[in-house]
Amino acid sequence: MSSMQTTVAPTTELKRAIGPKLLLLFIVGDILGTGIYALTGQVAAEVGGAAWLPFLVAFAVATVTAFSYLELVTKYPQAAGAALYVHKAFGIQFFSFIVCFVVMSSGLTSASAASRAFAVNLVAGFGLDVGVGAVLAIAVGFILLVMLVNFRGVTESVMLNVVLTLVELSGLLLVILIGFWAIAGGDADFSRVVAFETPEDKGVLVAVSTATSLAFFAMVGFEDSVNMAEETKDPSRIFPRIMLTGLGITAVIYVLVSICAVAIVPIGELAGNETPLVTVVQTAAPDFPISDLIPFISMFAVANSALINMMMASRLLYGMSKRGVLPSFLSRVHPGRRTPWAAILLTTAIAVGLISYVSLDTEGSVVALLGGTTSLLLLAVFTVVNGTVLVLRRDMVEHEHFHAGRVLPVIGALSCAYLVLPWSSGRPVEQYEIAGVLLAIGVLLWGITWLARRLVGSNTTVKDDATGLTGED
Q1: Which of 212, 132, 278 is nearest to 415 (CA)?
Q2: For 76-92, where are the alpha helices, taking DSSP H only?
């Protein structure tokens, strides 16, 4: 049976407008967000006052994985990210699709976590006395608002990202400054910073692993920067220095914030708190008017995370549909707005379902559950990416590029896999259930597409040069 292959080559290249400073702000802004603003209390609940330790461990794991990403992005300076690397290494269409769909799913769980954080910060900011149902309604309403903004076709420039980053950063610096002021004034118990406490049902290693799995949610985002490779000036030269600098800056901020949090607020008040930084500032400076701004700064930070992740998720879904690996209706574009409305509707529906489902459990932290699922999905991708580096060593390129060495990718793959596996990571089973449902949705959509193409007798293969994903009969 003969087959026809259609390859569409780009006629123009993206403008290389991003230099070192803008790339650094993009990376820092992408990492900062929901994780540190909402999960500090949950991390402290696992390890007590040593809440800074899981952030340090998460930073180490992220940095080792960043070395693998740096070798790949400088070797293949294209915008498709993990799906591109996996396809180049293994050439298995379904495997490449799964990696791409897992990345998309992580965007949905991250946005869902952000919407919940937005809701609880709004309630705290306005001092509302409402129940679980009202918080859920606010979170769902926020996701619907993000859908409308997404549908209108928001084009975020790099300069806008700079503004958003500075606002997010200002909130964290405010927490650090007020925290240091309280510590210097004797209004904090610094001895709590070295008080290591674990839940009764967990050993030290499992408790640290569980806390690190949560803290890793605060470190994700650095991998998104590889999608800016085609718009970055001389990416092979500046990416290594800038990505590692961005990770280092955020790690320092996170450690300082966590130290201030546990020194100022008793662990019992932090544990289970979905607005921990609001509590920190209000405890350290109850009569300081600026403390009233923290909930709104937190809302701004998590709102930015939600919008970016929902836009990413809908565009990935649209792209996979356009390339024939998902049902064709998901590639429909609104004629007026020129936005992928079908993909936006489906990703929004999944996000609403996620928020509603996890909100049924009033005992646990919704943000921690969704954030943990996000880190679970991305750590699985990172495990594969670290292995991909070693496989692609046989693929030589003409230009110079960054080398991660032989040992670091192995350490990265093993450490990421350790934080994924249920018997070593200490993750609750609900995270695996959510990830499994999302994967099942992806496989179902893949199956529907495959069956539809078989039934219509299509004999066409459509290939995209960027990702390598193909749709064929």
Answers
A1: 212
A2: 82-90
Q: How far apart are CA 227 and CA 229, in angstroms?
A: 6
405 part of a folded domain: yes
> Kind and range of the H or E element at 463?
strand 460-463
Distance CA 208, CA 315 (A): 36
CA 234 to chain centre: 26
pLDDT per position as a tens digit, 203-261: 788 889 999 998 998 888 888 777 666 667 887 788 889 999 999 999 999 999 999 99
| Phi, psi (degrees; rounded to nearest 5) at 353 | -60, -40
Question: Tokens 């500090």 correspond to what residue?
Answer: 40
Q: Note down the domain range covering 222.
A: 16-471
What pLDDT digit, counting tens, does each position of 65-102 carry? 999 999 998 898 875 678 888 888 998 888 988 998 99
How far, in Å, CA of 283 to CA of 261, rounded? 10
Q: How many independent structural domains does the chain possess?
A: 1
Check whether 156 has a pLDDT greater than 50: no
As a residue count, the chain comes to: 473
Please check whether residue 364 is in contact with residue 210, taking contact to mean a CB–CB distance below 8 angstroms.
no
CATH code: domain of residue 126? 1.20.1740.10
Taking the C-alpha atoms of residue 232 and residue 14, their distance in angstroms, rounded to an integer, is 9
Contact 220, 378 (CB under 8 A): yes
Residue 7 lies in a domain: no
* CA atoms within 13 Å, Cβ hemisphere of 90: 18
Structure tokens at 79: 């915008």
Write out the two tokens for 363. 């005992």
Asked if residue 32 lies in contact with residue 219, where contact means CB atoms within 8 angstroms, the answer is: no
Q: Supply φ then ψ for residue 429, to 5 degrees.
A: -65, -25
Q: How many C-alpha atoms does 326 have within 13 Å on its Cβ side?
A: 24
Torsion angles phi and psi, residue 18, rounded to 5: -100, 120
On whether residue 9 sits in a domain, the answer given is: no
* 194 within some domain: yes
Task: Tell me if residue 226 falls in helix, strand or coil.
Answer: helix
CA 460: distance to chain centroid? 35
pTM of the complete model: 0.85
Of 83-92, 153-162, 407-416, 434-443, give the lowest mean pLDDT range: 153-162
Question: What tokens does 370 get?
Answer: 């969704």
Tally of CB atoms within 10 A around 1: 4
How far is the C-alpha of 372 from the C-alpha of 391, rounded, in Å?
29
